[in-house]
Amino acid sequence: MHQVLLTIAVAQTFFAALILVLGKKEERSRSAALLGGFVFVYGVSFFQELELFSRLSAGAPFLVPLSFFFYFLIGPTFYFYIKDITKGADQPLVRNWPLHIAPIVLGVLFMSAWVMMSEDARQSAISNEFWPIEGPITPFAVSIFLAQMISHIQVFSYLMGSLRLLYEHLSRIRDLFSNLENKTLGWLRLAILALTAIWFTDLVTDIGYIFGWFGRLGEIVFTFGELMLFYFVTICGLRQPTIIVQEQSDATDFGNAKVDIVSVSSEGGHALTHDRPIASAPKSESRTKYAKSALDETHMKRIAEKLEQAMVNDRLFTDSSLTLADLSKNIRTPQNYVSQTLNQQLGLKFYDYIARHRIEAAKAMLSDNKNGSTVLSIALDVGFNSKSTFNAAFKRIVGSTPSQFRQEQHDKT
Fold first, then answer.
1. Are 336 and 250 in contact (CB under 8 A)?
2. Fewer CB atoms < 10 Å away: N or C end of the chain?
3. pTM surpassing 0.85?
């Protein structure tokens, strides 16, 4: 049963890797290749289990260090896939090559001791999942043990690095976009949690097999779990659209029009209120980010007034595709100045600032007894792309769902 499951896993992962590499659009060829590479080396890990299970490695000892080499590529391919789809256009994909290559070279060198081991020693290593606890502790056994430890440390380090990239990406897109659908990459955070659980389980089971904690059923369940994760990552990766993250511009003019940072007044419309606080970037982080900026508090107040005018008079927030770049062009102010004003003067990310204006407009519509529009219609009218996103933002800011708020307002009248 286990051998059949491993054979299916190897075939499907290799086929999926081929689809990912060949079936993507041209502008996503590199990220598709990296994800395809991750799926491929993930498949090689299934093949490694299959060769150990079928004793194929006993007749071809070179296969073990070779497949182990591919195991060392699981972390880097996953990490660089995430980095490629989240980095800015001008940022390099790889820095400090030696830092990424060293663990691979070191691990494979240690694992090469497998080829020099006797047949009996190899069979003993296979039965002990390469952990040299039973039998004599030989230099070969220690070498393989070190290779195992390096591989576990390397994978865990890349998983934590990948998680850091995703949280940095989430912070960045909240500064750039007013709607975050298909941009938050939440599925990748779930994949990292699953991979971390698999990493920990693998570490425990490697030791547990030695003491007889797990039998064949445990191996089947573990392989099945890995196969489910492969399906999840592959399907979500195929469905993930391109995320275009434009760097904030430092330009001080827009075409032939000069930037005009002057005081403005806002008339009419709704006032922006703060029902519930929204967590903003830490002040220390904000100060570090804009440490070299020449923008002072007086100018930030003026920009904040211009932003309010654009929201109240032009109702820019109703544009569901509104970005920081669009708002910056509308008020003829550099993006980095707008972002700094939002972060430091108002204490809000761009996404939260626009969401608050959308919610204020929605509250006015929901409070109107003569307005018979559905919650979905109101959500779309004020700039949200879906009812679920609207409900989540409304409850986060107001403290109740739109339907509950409407009922409460109607009960008061």
1. yes
2. C
3. no
Question: Do 223 and 89 fall into the same domain?
Answer: yes
Distance CA 43, CA 46 (A): 5
Same domain, 200 and 334: no
**Token code pair at residue 54:** 């079928």
Q: Answer with the one of 239, 264, 294 that is the final residue of a domain.
A: 239
Which region among 25-34, 87-96, 151-160, 225-234 has the lowest average model confidence (pLDDT)? 25-34
Question: Which DSSP state fits 257?
Answer: E
Give one DSSP letter per residue of 323-376, joined into a string.
BHHHHHHHTT--HHHHHHIIIIIS---HHHHHHHHHHHHHHHHHH-TT----HH
Q: Cα separations (Å) of 93 from 40, 97, 224, 376?
A: 20, 10, 33, 41
Cα–Cα distance list, 74 to 60, 88, 191 (Å)? 23, 24, 13
Range of the domain at 290: 253-412
Domain boundary among 239, 262, 296: 239
Residues 229 and 262 in one domain: no
